[in-house]
Amino acid sequence: MLDLQGYGPRLIEGAGVTISLALLSLILAIVLGLLTASAKMSRSWLLHKLATLYTTVIRGVPDLVLMMLLFFGGQMALNVATDALYDRFGVDWYINLNAFAAGVITIGFIFGAYMGETFRGAFLAVDGGQIEAGKAYGMSDWLVFRRIRFPLMMRHALPGLSNNWMVLLKTTALVSVIGLSDMVRVAAEASRATHEPFTFLLPVAAIYLLIASVSEWLFARLQKRYNVGFGGH
Amino acid sequence: MKKLLTISILGAAMVAGTAQARDYDHVRFGVDVPYEPMEYRTPDGELTGFDIDLGNALCEEIGITCEWIVQEWDGIIPGLMSRNYDAIMSSMTINDERRQTVLFSDPYFTPPSAWFAPADSELEDATEESLDGKTIGVQRGTLQDNFATDMFGSVASVSRYSTADDMVLDMEAGRLDILFLDYPVGKSTLLDSESRDYKVVGEMLTEPKEYFGDGFGIAFRQRDEALAERFNEALATLQDDGTYDEIYERYFSDDE
Amino acid sequence: MELTTWFTDLLDGNLIFTPQTLGYYWDGLVTTSQLVFLSLLAGLVLAVPLAIGRSSRHRWISLPIYAYTYVFRGTPLLIQLYIIYYGVVFVDGIQESIFWPLLREAFFPALIAFTLNTAAYTTEIFRGAIKATARGEIEAARAYGMSNALMMRRIVLPSAFRRALPAYGNEVIFMLHASAIASVVTLMDLTGAARFVYARFYAPFEAFLFVAAIYLCLTFAILYFFRFLEKRLLAHLRPA
Lengths: 233, 256, 240
What we know:
The complex is a heterotrimer of chains A (233), B (256) and C (240).
Chain A: H1 8-41, H2 45-60, H3 63-89, H4 99-125, H5 128-136, H6 141-171, H7 183-194, H8 197-226
Chain B: H1 2-12, E1 26-31, E2 40-41, E3 47-48, H2 50-62, E4 65-70, H3 76-81, E5 87-88, H4 96-99, E6 102-104, E7 113-118, E8 135-139, H5 143-152, E9 157-161, H6 164-172, E10 178-182, H7 183-191, E11 198-205, H8 209-212, E12 219-221, H9 225-241, H10 243-252
Parallel strand pairs in B: 1-4, 1-5, 8-9, 8-10
Antiparallel strand pairs in B: 2-3, 5-12, 6-12, 7-10, 7-11
Helix pairs in contact in B: 2-9, 2-10
Chain C: H1 2-11, H2 19-54, H3 59-74, H4 77-87, H5 100-104, H6 107-131, H7 135-143, H8 148-178, H9 190-201, H10 204-233
Helix pairs in contact in C: 2-3, 2-6, 2-9, 3-6, 4-6, 6-8, 7-8, 8-10, 9-10
């Protein structure tokens, strides 16, 4: 059997960090993505420009650089703000951004831009006639969104969504560089201490493959569900 | 709308502090590991080392509780500023550059910096001629990084590492010609290691002060003067009653 | 002349962007460009035969290639880099071999990791493009009595390359961004320079915003280069 030299429990903990980090950032990315897609399709000039700026800049800069900027710089910006609060008003109120929260926010923020593009394409692909039909039935805007627009959109968005998720999952490895103890960091630390890189890095690579395979299977099932009613192959 | 959302998510990660200059009954220390023997982890994850033991003893003397928060070196001062912890006790050298940002306690330890190379290396001293074309390993953002970069950056290549462990591994792999680090750390991780023989190259350095500063101190936020004062008093007490020497012996006894 | 005085004036009194740190950024730009360009080139050379093999009907050819692309596309590049960087040291006899002077530097282990990674993605891009070749083109080539090899060279590959162009452009940008992790194995690439400046001056905004702007410019340059290529090479596919 694999001898993890006492690092086993920390590796499992690290895997937990990786998975929860990935899932939480996915949720944040989807929410930001939906907002961005709506902003891009809105009639407001300002919203449109803001959303375009966001997706262009985020997609033009490496994840690691954004992560360091938001993690190190974000903290410093918060300090300036809360220090001013203290000096002016004597309020010792502060924001304590831990590495995990910073990781979720950063990855969610980055992938929100990619999700925005995915959702926009998917919304545009929805047949307008169906929405008009919904309105003709006297459905409210919200009901049209929930019952017609969203499910139809998801059918087009799923391939892109699945792709983004796979990339996001691998991006979580970068948080190890800014100091969060995910499974990559634990494995790297253990490799250095024991001088046995393969013992720790290969199992971690295998866990990533496992998560990727399980997600692929799940997305295939979801796709089947949202394809219902579109005849098929 | 997007902004609103970001703010409310930030809110989930917020901890509001109590009002006014604080009377600490619990102090959180930021520490960068591994930096043997000053601070490092046992395989099951427990923190140990000279700084850890001395820090705990200081807290006990003051009558407060303390906890240790691991933070990588290049984010350690920003982490203090953003109140991720209340003090840094992590082999941090007191120097003027850092004094502009943080408040230091009295020095509690004054080690020199030293050059280390494999025992069979032809390097006998560290000068511009001897280091020409060599690869120097340092930890990113340390005073050794600043010194090596400014003095030898133009003739040698300086490899910067996030942790001391990375650096030692690459030394053992033969990727580096020479390392520059705090002497006790080099002694513990290189001279005392069994995998390969190492030697100290040239003089140990404590000058110029502009780079090498005034020894290790505990760093606080500028406004926590009262807290720093309590630590200074406790440090003096421990140095008088022999506790300091006892901890020192635990990690730096030469007669092994 | 005026420009240089303006420039030195600008740098005067600026504690962070000194000639020294700007030199680091410049060296970083050179390292990043070399790393990305060389790994893309080597990856491309590897990917063409791999993509042909991956499209083969013989499972003993296509399956191993699929396993390779699956593993390299399913795991983070950072792990691949760690395994190669720390792993090569433990290959028996490597430190005495003629390759050691190369592998000793961080550059070559990083180059190997990046090349294997981009080759895996590029293989799948090409495979998709080869698979999408119009049946009629193949039948026409067969009717002319072309051999498989000739058909591959004259008919399938040229049209597959064109179809692959947009996806490959994305891969190039992806590699540029992925190369930022080279700094974790001590390489002073663009991100490495930024981390140095940050650690020395505790100035995250200056250090990282500056480098982000450089990456943004590089990304746009690549983007426009591929748009230009597409215009030239895919002109016949545009709606009239």
